[in-house]
Amino acid sequence: MFSHVTIGSCDPDSAAAFYDAVLATLNIPVFFKAPNLASYGTATGPKVFILQPFNGADPVPSNGGHIAFLAQTRAQVDAFHAKALELGGSDEGPPGLRAHYHPNYYGAYVRDPEGNKLQAVCHSSKG
Question: Can you list the domains of the chain with their CATH numbers?
């Protein structure tokens, strides 16, 4: 559905430590890294880039937007949430069913240390 998502960061190298560990809970691999740049995903699939804004201004988290990462199991959602909090993220909604979306919608919401809102969501009944 999308090619890539870019998340602005004041310090992409430090942010990479958070994203390396949190995205690993969802089996999302590091694609490549360079100074002030981290990328996750695969060459032929969707990717996430962490970098400083090209205009040189401070990054500003989206108001009303978030990035939802697909989890294969509910246990991955739980692990994503726990790891994000362990690494300085903040809770924006603990893991749980959100049946108002659909009966198997299991998700959790966090903010990374710079305030970007992230989610992990599993659309199946897999534990």
Answer: 4-54+65-122 (3.10.180.10)
